[in-house]
Amino acid sequence: MGTLLEVKEKIITFIEAHRKWVERCLRFVLALVSMTAILSELGYSRVLDLPWLNLLLAAGCAFFPVTATAVVDLVLIIVQIYGFSKLLAFSVMLLFLIVYLLYYRFAPKAILVSMLTMLCACFRIPLFVPVLCALFVTGLPLAGVPVGLFLFYTVDAIGTIENTQTVQESMNAQDLIAYTYNMIAGSREMIVIIACSLIALIVVSFLRSLAVPHAFSYAVIAGAVSEAVFLLLLNMFLNAGIQLVPALVSIAAGTFAGEMAVLFQYNIDYTKSEHLRIEDSEYYYYVTAVPKQRLARKELRITHINARKIKSGAPGAVQEHTSEGSPSDRN
């Protein structure tokens, strides 16, 4: 535990010292990975499938908020679909506009949540996200998980149609839109994954808010177990055809990541809890104070040397005293 706390303190110190560049690097990686995922899902237009162009766009997105990355990704999606069907591209653009006006406009933080959800779904680990998001996000932005899943399965259905040569040749634009709608509405896999995500979000959000010891750890475990149980039951009853091994592995990975997040972000020492009573003219306040675990500060011995007194041989040339401070205070 002491080693983990020391690593945590070093990571936090490094991030605080280089916060701007750390955020820019993370935005660069998010933009690059998302654009690569889009081009792999919708590879119809080869004009944008240029590595140097992706690197250039990702580098530009690194200096702007995450919303800029979302806009660039949306443009890439529309351009890719436009090369396949103009009417379908217009329909998808209208869908994204409606989602923005009805949801993202009121919950801007949900844009990042939806982007991460879509990326995990693209790598076939959609159930990795819900437990983690419920630990750090509260309120309306939590709906970014099911919204992101719905948008992913919409884009994935279009990518599947693009790869089907017989469908492309035998349908006009209107029939193609109807066929895409039927694919999305009839996707049992999407229904199961969204339902399991909602269950995990509700369980984790409820348990983490309870005033009980180790509430965050219990929330992670309970959310993962409920997610796995509902996945098995719904997949069996709906015959969704979901590959259970990758899905369960993604849940296990999300559970491990959630426990590590609890350790780094909510590392609480329940053995030192204090129950306090505060009184004013109208009320009594009963408060439970639970400290976070910290590294014990080490004693530092500081020696002050007076060069002039050393030359003259005067007493008090060297003075020593001890003070408390962390190892990082030596710098």
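The record above closes out task 2.4. Task 2.5 opens with a second protein, given below.
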Amino acid sequence: MIKRVYILILSSIIIFASDAVAQTYEIKGKFSSYSNIRKLELIDIAIEGNTIIDTTSINAQGEFTLKGNLRNPNSHFYFIKYNNTNDPVPVFINAKTATNCSLVIDPISEQIPYTVSGDKANEDLQYYMVQNAASFQTIKGSFRTRAMGLQKIINEREAGAGGLFCAIFLMGSDKSYDVNLDQLPILIDQNEMFYIAFDKKYYDPFSDVILMKVIHNFLAERSLSPTAIGKVMENFTLNNLKSKPISLTDYRGKYVLVDFWASWCGPCRQENPNLVQAYNKYRNKNFDILGVSLDAKKTPWKTAVLSDDLKWMQVSELVETSLLATKFEFSSIPFNVLLDKEGTIIAKNLRGQLLQDKLKEVFGE
């Protein structure tokens, strides 16, 4: 079947600043083939809910105009929806500068049905939607899977507005485009290093986007944590498997990964081969690991150490409720922090390839 490609040219998406709270907009466009095109809607995506802010129809030449006052005065994401399609076209409208872009829409495509040119922010947005269609499909997957999809797209490209849209979309559900702010702390807990870099990269140019403000403020509060990046980790002393006391300060002068784990923690055990690989590769380059077990009994702890071939020092409180978990304010394992030679935290929650990449950055190979 020959696909009918509809060309929608958004010849101008112009935001005019004014003294009033609301800002005006004007969107002009045209479908090159429009026999089946009927109603178009401009949808405002907001935390409190999505709202149709404008509706129009094409004229005899397939042209249309959307214009009015924006409810949200900040740089913001909108959808252009036509014929009640399930694949509306996302548009990022920048409140600071005029936005002009051209879109090509294929409504019968099985993938994201449009391409875009003429505006960097919307090109980045389309890059996520199309080139990362696999990540797009994870919207119905687990929260962690969606978080990984977000991390993937921004790590692969200077995604700008596309990355912000990705964050909004992935933190929503399969039925809503709203930001799920209740889950944001979970997302940041699991990917704190990523979001620190995310904040540094995108906060200044996109500080008027609500999501960026929320992330920025949350990270500011998180900076007060005892395991915040840039803080010297407080010393502790625990016994090893031979009942010998070991202190964190014994490792000054080395890069050390303080790894909190337990024999009963499935994800911890799955991560151990990655730690073994890192340890074997960098142990002769002034790198070490200090394993801190949250086991309450010695036998399963010792059995896991031997089974997983963990050659580095292991210590434990051997109590039912860990005092260190309370002291360092973490609620789940695996949890780790990477310290420099002075004991300063330079990274945290490094697992899988993230750990290998960070150690390569530190040691230069």
